[in-house]
Amino acid sequence: MFLRRMTTLLAPYLFVGPAVLFVAAVLYAPVLFSVGLSLSDWNFITPEAHFVGLDNYRAILADPGFRTAAGNTLLYCLLLIPAQILVPLALAALLIRVRRPGLSQFYKAALFLPTILAYSTAGIAWSWLFDLQNGFLNTLLGWFGLPPSGWHSDPGLALYCVALVTFWKNFGLNMLLLLAALVAVPRSVLEAAAIDNAGPWRRFWSIELPMISPTFFFVAVTTTMNVLDDIVGVIDVLTEGGPFNRSTNILYYMYQSGLNFFQFGKASAAAVMIILLVFAVTWAQFRMFERRVHYES
Fold it and tell me: What does the pLDDT average to over 218-224?
């Protein structure tokens, strides 16, 4: 009797235990290790790590390169987060109104195709388009009698070129998620609204958008969490943070500090700041918007 009671009591923990241990090993343990490393001075070569307290945090906050990366990060977020949410939403709203199945499938495949490409492939393809001498974009400018542009090698345009490539590479997944949510909206509700003389915009704003709000909220949160990581892949292939650090961001600053200069304490301090930033923004999103999400039973 006692054995059966203990088995019943421990069974749930035995089922979830492996998953919890796996998450702790691959997620929380590296975070804790990064926090510890951010408080030390260690280059992975010397046998001992020296505790330095908050010196690494003070060093990166005083570093002009970090401040430049932080400013670029803010601009990237202001450009990419709204674009990767609102443009896919608009495209999904247009795609659901394409009535010909063959044409609809073609549009979906064409718009989703960049998402399956590797960042290296996307970066190389766009570097050809941006090429100063033979790139298609400069050839296009020449057709209109305009001088060629340096695009990603121009300090004033490099950040926007990286943002453009990042958006092109990643918007397709959000588009499909929002499209799937729109497809699930009951047609009977929309037909009833149309009978009541509600136009397309009124039906979208008052019926479709509230009914897909759980998916919209999910897309907003995941886009915010992943946007910094998405940018790094394009930066590494297209500009390597240049010219003059004009296209770098905090995550790429962390990558360079750790793997290029072996300053793992500074890199870990930057990583901890990124974690805190993403956590704060995500928490704010939940606090501000979750109550406005309408979950259907």
Answer: 90
Q: Specify burial of residue 193 (Cβ count, 10 A radius: 0-12, 13-18, 19+).
A: middle
Q: Say which residues have a Cβ less than 8 Å from residue 190's Cβ, sequence separation at least 6.
A: 203, 207, 208
Closest CA to 128 of 115, 139, 141, 116: 139
Q: pTM value?
A: 0.86
Q: How many CB atoms sit inside 10 A of residue 73's CB?
A: 21
Q: How far apart are the first and last CA of the chain?
A: 41
From residue 287, alpha-carbon distances to 102, 109, 209, 211, 292 in Å are: 42, 36, 20, 20, 10
**Residue 174 backbone dihedrals phi, psi, to 5 degrees:** -60, -35
Q: How distant, in Å, are the alpha carbons of 35, 49, 106 from that of 175? A: 36, 47, 14
The candidate with the shortest Cα–Cα distance to 290, out of 216, 182, 185, is 216
Among 197, 169, 203, 192, CA closest to 96: 203
* Structure confidence by residue, pLDDT tens digits, 226-262: 888 888 888 988 998 888 889 999 989 998 888 888 8
Rounded-to-integer distance, Cα 288 and Cα 215, Å? 16
Rounded CA-CA distance 45/47 in Å is: 6
- Return d(Cα 129, Cα 125) in angstroms, integer: 7
